[in-house]
User: Fold these one by one.
Assistant:
Number 1:
Amino acid sequence: MMKALNPPITTWTGKRVWLIGASSGIGAALAESLLTAGASVVLSARRAEQLTTIAAPHSTAYVVPFDVTETEAWPLALAQVLEHLGHIDLVVLGAARYDPTHSWTIDLEQAEKSFDLNVVSVYRGLSVIVPHLLEQGCGGVSLIASISGYTGLPRALIYGATKAALQNLCETLYFELAPKGLAVYLINPGFVQTPMTSGNDFPMPGLLTPQQAAQAIMRGFERGHFEIRFPKAFSFTLRLISMLPDRLRFALLHQTTGM
Ligand SMILES: NC(=O)c1ccc[n+]([C@@H]2O[C@H](COP(=O)([O-])OP(=O)(O)OC[C@H]3O[C@@H](n4cnc5c(N)ncnc54)[C@H](OP(=O)(O)O)[C@@H]3O)[C@@H](O)[C@H]2O)c1
């Protein structure tokens, strides 16, 4: 059997996790799963009230609300996280927005805001987190991208491009940080029923609940995968389609998306 790309996480008991984008959807469900499994978790996002409600039943949950688009907020947030946890085993960067956009309805303000939140804020976070993890000499960082980053898709003119950027960025992170002893995970979800997708007016194949998504993410960490993608069949199919010759790929996507 081939060795896992990251060290498998064999127990969550005592693991210290910083979860960014934890106030709803996948992040909130992942927080619940990690806390139930025995981890200590700092929950971050802008909405402090939601974070506090999720954290309330758990003695090992802490709340550090902040806006990830504010560069100066990151070092302060890291300092608060360290006050709570003392050490960081894993950071999950999941804050994002999705503005459905076609090629003929480009809104520049949305494009700027999406890239600023979905991509630039990841760099903001990495610029403070990576030096800290390197100084610790251990720990891991995971980015939540999307299977929509595999190939151009209708309505995903902005969102898909931000997620493709994260996929590329995460590969470079793995190349550079794995040899230095850090774990790097690329999380590529398919459709998950969350506030982000609640306005979608088209069929969402393989739609998962946030709890199912959280379980898939936990399994990926436990197995030491680099890419954690789900649901299996739909994500594999889209990955396969993305590797087909252009003519075939576009024809298949036109046919399957009806666009
Ligand atoms: N749902 C899907 O089908 C799907 C598919 C593929 C990938 N994903 C990815 O999965 C991740 C979670 O998405 P979700 O579906 O769970 O959506 P969601 O429920 O809308 O969660 C988005 C999270 O990002 C946080 N956030 C947004 N702007 C922020 C800011 N400026 N500063 C700090 N936090 C901010 C939100 O919290 P506040 O509003 O409280 O700040 C919220 O916790 C995202 O990266 C998304 O792109 C989702």
Number 2:
Amino acid sequence: MKTAVIIPALNEAGNIAKLVQETMTQPVEWVFVADNGSTDKTAVLAQKAGAIVISEPRRGYGYACAAGTKAALAAGAGILAYMDGDFSSLHIELPRLLAPIKQNQADLVLGSRVLGHIAAGAMLPHQRFGNWLSARLMSRLYHVTVTDLGPYRAIRADLMRSLKMCEMTFGWPTEMMVKVAKGNGRIIEVPVSWHVRRSGRSKVSGTLRGSLLAAYYILGVTLRYAR
Ligand SMILES: Nc1nc2c(ncn2[C@@H]2O[C@H](COP(=O)(O)OP(=O)(O)O)[C@@H](O)[C@H]2O)c(=O)[nH]1
Ligand SMILES: [Mg+2]
């Protein structure tokens, strides 16, 4: 099964080249960087490092993930893995996410930071609480066992293709989970570690606007799709 890693990136020039190079040392066929109008050199550095850069002009985390996904599916990937572009996840843990799909034990594998390790300062208290609340809600409403809603994850490509994603902002990762759960897909969690971003600034949990929007979309999608 050929694997594509999709990295949504917005102004990650300080991270992206090394991250792409490191990721390509893993058993993956492609690294797609979904650039969302970065004003720095993210796109050119990612391309030089060996990634396929997908430019998505519509602003929104979900638009970027969707554009990267579309390109990876068109390339013929059998497994899609998602990873942030700031070194908060480790490339060496990728095989953990891929193994259950390759062994046909799961359709969606979620990297759980709660089951793994969160480095000091890598997750702010409001983010920990929001994750805990969302995971509890999701477990209750969708009869799944999840401890986290982390971005580091892998999914079978044919399942992803069937999901008909429509949340084009911060609700995208949550929509993936609730739709797989509703379709009785096999979801498992594996422990992953979570680290302080290496360079540059947070656009989501480190800002008030990003945090409020993320909470609104994550909780909103969790509740809305349960109906
Ligand atoms: N393409 C794209 N990527 C984004 C956007 N917002 C955040 N990202 C990327 O998504 C990942 C997570 O964002 P980050 O700023 O680290 O959020 P945090 O981990 O909550 O602090 C990083 O790779 C960002 O570059 C966006 O609007 N478009
Ligand atoms: Mg981050």
